[in-house]
Amino acid sequence: MLSPYRVLDLCHEHGMICGQILGDLGADVIVVEPPDGASARRTGPFYQDLPDPDGSLYWWAYSRNKRSITLDLTTPEGQDALRRLAMHAHFLIESFAPGTLAAYGLGYDDLMALNPALVYVSITAFGQSGPKAAYTASDLTLLAAGGQLVLTGDDDRAPVRTSVPQAELHAGAEAACAALVAHHARQRSGRGQHVDVSAQQAVALTTMSRILITPLDATESTRSAGGIKMGELRTRSIWPTQDGYVSLGIMGGPGIGRFTQRLMAWMYEEGFCDAATRDKDWMMYAELVFSGEEPIEEFERVQQMVESFTRSKTKAELLRAALDRGLLIAPLSTIDETVNNPHLAERQYWTPLSHPELGQSIRYPGPFARFGATPMAYRRRPPTVGEHTLEIEAELATLSRHVPEAAPSGSAAVPHPLSDIKILDFTWVMAGPTATRVLADYGATVVRVESAGRLDPMRLFGPYHDGEPGPENSGWFQNINAGKMSLRLDLSNQAAHPVIHDLVRWADVVIESFSPKAMRAWQFDYESLRRIKPDLIMLSTCLMGQSGPYSQLAGYGNLASAIAGFDALVGWPDRDPAGLFIAYTDTIAPRFTVAALLAALEYRHRTGVGQYIDQAQLESALQFLSPALLDYVVNGRVQARMGNDDTHMAPHGVYPTLGEDRWIAIAVQSDAQWQALCGLMQTQTGLPFVTARFAQAQQRLAHRAELDAILASWTRQHDPHTLEATLQAQGIAASAVLTMDDLYRDPQLTHRGHLLELNHPLHTVTTVEGSRFRLSDTPAHITRSAPILGCDTEYVLETLLGYSPDHIRKLVSQEILR
């Protein structure tokens, strides 16, 4: 799909997945490494546990489909070589600290002067400007700064991270989307631009709109092992079984009430609940609990009955019942169980990639989506250091200067880069709507098809305006659906089908997130729709994909998070898994959805060929666990949860500070940072912290518990925000663990314009998050709040489809516009 395009990848650990996504989509990705290799090559785990720069499994995880050239960018020769490469490139991706490349004469302005069509992507911890732009960061501190950390862990211990780093992956995947939006703008104008990606903003997506708690005056959510707490209410999502754990939600309500009804009927059959419990109003149960009509004590009693029930079953028994009975249950997989998952095996997910230097093939996590016309291919194993230097230099000598192909050089920038894209949106809840919100932000016309008879559950999820549940009151719905239109249409009525057919003719893209059978039952499957529009692009995104033994598993991202292996990797080694906050994979999958659609649109732009895309959210999410999956495939090691420990850094943890449940995340990344930290503590306390036995990282790793105790005794005397600034002034990665109110008021997010106030017809104003990346020439255009149900029906029918008033009156009489 992207085979005509060349990408220069200058990323460190932050952002490596960006180049890999573009490479998997067909681009020629050239990694530019220093002579001793990229720093990621020194990150474990390693092939056969041998610390070889060509055997880093972290490097393998995010470097396939790339070539490698070595350049010393600190020298004039290396800088000149990069300039020559940039003259013939379409994208440059970098993750240096702001200003670093500009100091070498390789900044955005420098390279754009040589190649005005270059899309220059900068991935940093906090963005290119702002009060925290120069901050040192790590995975742990970014999770703290982005709001995820405070929502995860046991309430009687420190907040805890996932034991496989995640923050840089959110940033890198976001950057791939941003690069392709900028590319689409270039296709229309011939001009490149600067893309500015903030890892903090990318991570903030994982808070599931809880950043809106302050403007909506809602109850702050806090962590609770295997669930969440809202005030005095603790809801569980992880439950013990005979042989492990499962993910299961029982709160009830419009999104999961019918599933809970089925669960309670099964429990009653087997004697684990009484008839009164079985017959509760599960469709309204969440509202009953939150209003106090259902006492918390009664809710706790119900949860105890559910625990007794799950303890009587194995994970396999509960999964089988979920498939047979239509329940929201999924096992918490360990890494070995994920690799050996029969559903993934039947879908032939694992992809062998030959390593000739090892004399063997390695099974890699497979493609993040399945393209009907242009299947993703793993063309190259991760390169050895500088493996392609001579090859690339020879190519460079024969290349003529790159001239943009999409439009004449000097064309005016297009204000809204995706304004030529029309999307018919059948998605609901979170993953799909989050993706189409990104496209709407940059100008795409997105028409949501909705019905009062099959209401999007997200319309009834909190936090709410005025604390009142209702289909127009959900702040979460507002946040992920801003900028879209709503068409009210009853799909179950055959008379509505001609309207859908006309919308398909109008649309460039159809996207849906129903179960695999639904669109086929309505005859809206791809084969049916492409007869109406032969060049249609259609993407189906669901939990497990369109085929395989678990394809009919219903559920949300919390279940995919469990099956993938995320939840089992969160928590403390001496306790049950804590799991991640709500539907974690619903924050991963949308990035891959956007990238897939924009790549398919690019391919159609060149060839006129549309296609069908099957996106299993599980398979997309597994990209974020690749190092651990490869570690099991190669070394037979099952990654375990580690609390906040790190295999390379110490001290590395979350430490108490002044205030109730206030914390600071600190990651000492080098011996020099350790010396600086010790000097700071010694200055403030007069104690000689620098000792010979702690001077080197291996010594500190061997005494982690002792160091954590020393550090905690010091941090608890300080305000978290003040201490963050003090540590950052010494070049030490640190962040206060931001609450949702902190996040809302964070000066860096304020500087970035992360939160926007939009006019709303019912609530006067509603607050939403802005775009998580910045484009220098074609910024996001977010001016319209999420639609009231069906508010655009007349406009869509009359203006977009050209229906006459008589035609519309006929549709009203057929009772399909409801």
TrEMBL record:
Coiled coil: none annotated. One of its GO terms (molecular function) is CoA-transferase activity. InterPro entries: CoA-transferase_III_domain, CoA-Trfase_fam_III, CoA-Trfase_III_dom3_sf, CoA-Trfase_III_dom_1_sf. Keywords: Transferase. This is CoA transferase. It comes from Entotheonella factor.
